[in-house]
Write a structure and sequence with these properties.
The chain is mainly α. About 65% of the residues lie in helices and about 0% in strands. The chain is built from twelve helices and two strands; from the N terminus they run ααααααββαααααα. A two-stranded antiparallel sheet has the order 1-2.
Length: about 260
């Protein structure tokens, strides 16, 4: 299953890296950080636009977009910190410490505002719910974390399963554990992209305008007992992202100016 998607992805990713990513150098990482952070926080309700996110990225907390709350600004700044830490530590083992560090950074300056009794990077001490989903006993779910991380690390090392499939399946398992009081989605999307980056592949940016499709694919794990929809969504999102960037590159290289 997904053999055709995997072949298409490999060809497209090679072209994308060669044509879009490599020529931009460090600028590409900064571009990706802005887009990734804008959309990952946007999925969780942030009203930041790409331009707002770029302004904050360039000026940090010296920039305060009109109509945005201090909480939104700090959440975005924390996401920058987590993203940048991840990129500096791609050699880190794929383990519980990695998961906790990313969640700690994502929620470092906002968690106490939302949940004064919680600590950034520490697992929840209460059972959790999100949207229309009630998760299981937090003690039982937390007990599964080492096995999830160890088995995913083994699969990554073996290299027998396509990285996008590994990333998507991990994401589905992780989100249904719902381990932290806050930042589960943002942490999960960072971890899924850590997997892709370890393979030298482009990051997958799930755009906020595709939130409902994304949530539906996650919900199907519960309602249909399959992660096939999520894997398909990951491939589809990657194709849209890379095709769009390649088209922009081509179209903008052909622009003609008239006076």
């Amino acid at each position: 299953m997904f053999e055709d998607e995997a072949r298409r992805y490999d060809l497209l990713a090679e072209k994308y890296l060669e044509t879009v990513a490599s020529p931009m150098g460090e600028t590409f990482r900064q571009y990706s950080e802005i887009i990734f952070s804008c959309h990952s926080c946007g999925i969780e309700g942030s009203s930041f636009s790409v331009d707002d996110t770029r302004g904050l990225f360039e000026k940090r907390l010296g920039y305060f977009p009109v109509g945005k709350s201090l909480l939104e600004c700090q959440e975005m700044a924390d996401h920058f910190a987590a993203y940048e830490w991840m990129h500096r530590h791609l050699d880190h083992p794929f383990d519980v410490a990695l998961m906790k560090t990313l969640n700690r950074l994502v929620t470092l300056h906002t968690l106490s505002f939302k949940y004064p009794d919680a600590r950034p990077g520490e697992f929840t001490t209460v059972d959790m719910a999100a949207g229309d989903t009630v998760f299981g006993s937090h003690e039982q779910l937390i007990a599964q974390v080492p096995s999830l991380m160890e088995s995913t690390a083994r699969v990554m090392e073996a290299g027998d399963i396509h990285p996008v499939i590994v990333s998507a399946r991990f994401h589905g398992f992780y989100e249904y554990l719902h381990l932290f009081r806050d930042g589960n989605g943002r942490t999960g999307r960072l971890l899924s992209n850590f997997i892709l980056l370890r393979y030298g592949l482009p990051e997958l940016i799930i755009r906020k305008e595709n939130r409902q499709e994304y949530i539906a694919a996650l919900r199907a794990i519960r309602t249909e007992r399959t992660d096939e929809h999520l894997v398909a969504f990951f491939f589809k999102s990657a194709f849209r992202q890379m095709d769009d960037a390649l088209k922009q590159k081509q179209d903008n290289g052909r622009m003609m100016f008239f006076f």
